[in-house]
Design a protein that fits this description.
single chain, alpha+beta, five-stranded antiparallel β-sheet, 10 helices
């Protein structure tokens, strides 16, 4: 069978069994259309939040430094290396705290109960898996935490602003949970910032106190040295060097103590004044972004796939025969002994 015969037989079979191809195409098209029809309409909220920190001084010097880029003012979440806001937003601690909150507008149920109920409401073919009743509140919160992990996304955009996305099939639940996420994130972020400032203040206090103890010891050593050298020749090095060394040590420790006191006062000032606020720039309010499978797109994909399967079924016998013939020809050709051409003898 050559290629021309193959094409002729394929066209004949396609024309003869065109009804079979149409049936397969219709079956796959209907199946894909059913899948798209069974899909759930999902709503996605988007909230952008930004930190407002009161750590910078409202003076001309600090303003100029900020404009010139010389200051250390935190302008975005990416500039705050001490706390990773994305990890905090995606952490299990935050998800569990959100899952335990009750929503008065929704029969005063907890977020965990509402999330599980919404998941069980949409179970079926190629949809969510039904979740059975939880043994206790802790297991219920863990289950809801896993559901929130799949539905919640946090990321930092190119401008250093935190973006929060939450997806669910209930728009009322999407709005409520999004606001709860922002509140819990603000609460945890502020607590961590205050805790960090408290640790810095305690360290600065301990450092200044330890340097003060050393200064007092050096003063006692100097007084003791004066009291033990009444009638000595101060020009002798063995009496003059200890005084010089004590003076140098005291000057060094005094310089360190000066900076330690400044750091202590600065840490105390930050502890009292720094109250970071997470202010939403874009609130998670309707209209939300909607996601649903397109019925027409799935119908077209199903028909194309069904037509391909139908053509393959109809023409498989001919194609298989053609491939078998070609394989046999290749085997026969390979099994024939090779004969070298006779070279002419040159006198």
């Amino acid at each position: 069978m050559n290629r021309i015969d193959l094409i002729k037989q394929l066209l004949y079979r396609l024309k003869k069994y065109s009804w079979l191809i149409l049936i397969v195409t219709a079956l796959f098209g209907g199946f894909f259309y059913y899948i798209a029809k069974q899909s759930v309409l999902l709503y996605t909220s988007k909230a952008t939040v930004f930190p407002l920190n009161g750590t910078s001084e409202n003076t001309a010097g600090s303003t100029i430094s900020s404009l010139l880029g010389l200051g250390e003012v935190t302008k975005s979440f990416t500039g705050d290396a001490s706390i990773n806001i994305v990890e905090l937003a995606s952490s299990r601690r935050t998800r569990e705290a959100v899952a335990m909150v009750r929503i008065p507008a929704m029969n005063n149920k907890t977020v965990s109960e509402l999330i599980i109920e919404e998941n069980n409401r949409l179970t079926g073919f190629m949809q969510n898996v039904k979740i059975g009743p939880s043994r206790d509140s802790l297991s219920q919160i863990n289950t809801a935490s896993n559901l929130l992990k799949r539905a919640f996304v946090a990321k930092i955009n190119k401008n250093g602003i935190l973006e929060l996305f939450f997806t669910n099939s209930n728009p009322q639940l999407v709005r409520a949970v999004s606001y709860i996420y922002i509140d819990k994130l603000s609460e945890f972020y502020i607590d961590l910032k205050k805790k960090k400032a408290q640790i810095d203040y305690e360290f600065a206090v301990k450092k200044a106190d330890s340097l003060l103890v050393i200064l007092n010891k050096l003063d006692k050593d100097a007084v003791s040295l004066d009291e033990s050298t009444f009638f000595t020749n101060e020009g002798l090095k063995r009496y003059n060097l200890p005084k010089i060394n004590l003076a140098q040590d005291k000057a060094t420790v005094q310089s360190q103590y000066y900076y330690a006191v400044n750091n202590r006062e600065s840490a105390a000032y930050r502890l009292q004044k720094e109250t970071p606020i997470i202010e939403p720039l874009d609130r998670p309010e309707p209209p939300f972004d909607t996601i649903k499978k397109s019925k027409m797109l799935y119908l077209m994909l199903g028909c194309m796939f069904g037509a391909f399967i139908g053509i393959l079924i109809v023409s498989w016998k001919i194609i298989n025969k053609y491939l078998g013939d070609e394989l046999n020809k290749a085997i026969e050709k390979a099994s024939q002994p090779k004969v070298d051409p006779i070279k002419p003898v040159v006198d």
